[in-house]
Design a protein that fits this description.
about 80% helix; about 0% strand; mainly alpha
């Protein structure tokens, strides 16, 4: 491991400076004799702290890789589940009156089946980008600003979108307080969205099995059933695209 430059570590420089003052004043070494020892203190402290940082980074990298493996596996399970829902919908919605609702279901299932490949394609970017800790102070300021804007918002549609943003900022702030870096925060959000898709798929499957085809299988009913799935997929797409930064 290369020896780090102690000048890049302010704490090591500070402690070495204190050691220099103490050695120069409290020992017979004097300034000339204390200086080499202070340099050794600075180099040693910088080396120890650098090793600690590298070890912590390796552990974070390992956790990120494991979380990505779990996300890929979960997405493939959901893709298989989506294919089962698609087949059940095709078997039940056979009347021409249900062509449009069936198309909605098939489109949603197509998007779900594409998730594993999307996650795999972004794997390297998700692993390598955003290793900085989430900025707590910046998130706190932005959350306060958005909460104030939310109170002043009069449009119901815009208020709903701003409320979603406020909830996401609160979640990010909680993760920042937990010491997560940007990669870990993004993967935690990805895992949460995938579990939300699981619940949405189960609901859609129950609707297909119990209520369709019937007069309840209207365009509106189908759209409402798949809306949470589409929203979760949109959120995952944004998360994956953020990994390109």
């Amino acid at each position: 491991m290369p020896i780090p430059n102690p000048l890049d570590d302010p704490l090591a420089v500070l402690l070495a400076s204190l050691a220099l003052v103490l050695l120069a004043r409290l020992t017979p070494l004097g300034l000339v004799g204390a200086l080499p020892l202070a340099v050794l203190v600075a180099v040693g402290l910088a080396y120890i702290r650098d090793r600690h940082r590298r070890r912590g980074q390796r552990l974070r990298d390992q956790r990120v890789a494991a979380e990505l493996d779990a996300a890929e596996l979960r997405s493939r399970e959901l893709a298989a589940q989506a294919e089962r829902v698609r087949r059940e919908a095709m078997a039940r919605l056979t009347d021409t009156a249900y062509l449009e609702p069936l198309g909605f279901v098939q489109l949603c299932c197509d998007r779900l089946q594409g998730l594993p490949d999307r996650i795999a394609a972004r794997r390297h970017l998700l692993q390598s980008s955003g290793e900085q800790l989430l900025p707590r102070q910046g998130l706190e300021r932005r959350l306060a600003r958005e909460e104030a804007e939310l109170q002043r918002e009069t449009s119901s549609a815009l208020r709903l979108e701003r409320l979603k943003l406020v909830k996401q900022l609160r979640t990010n702030l909680e993760m920042a307080h937990s010491g997560l870096d940007e990669r870990q925060a993004r993967l935690l959000a990805l895992s949460t969205r995938l579990e939300g898709i699981d619940g949405g798929l189960r609901h859609l499957q129950r609707q297909v099995n119990r209520h369709w085809p019937s007069s309840a299988a209207t365009d509106v009913a189908v759209t409402q059933a798949i809306a949470p799935l589409d929203e979760a997929i949109d959120q995952i797409e944004r998360l994956l695209d953020a990994g390109q930064a």
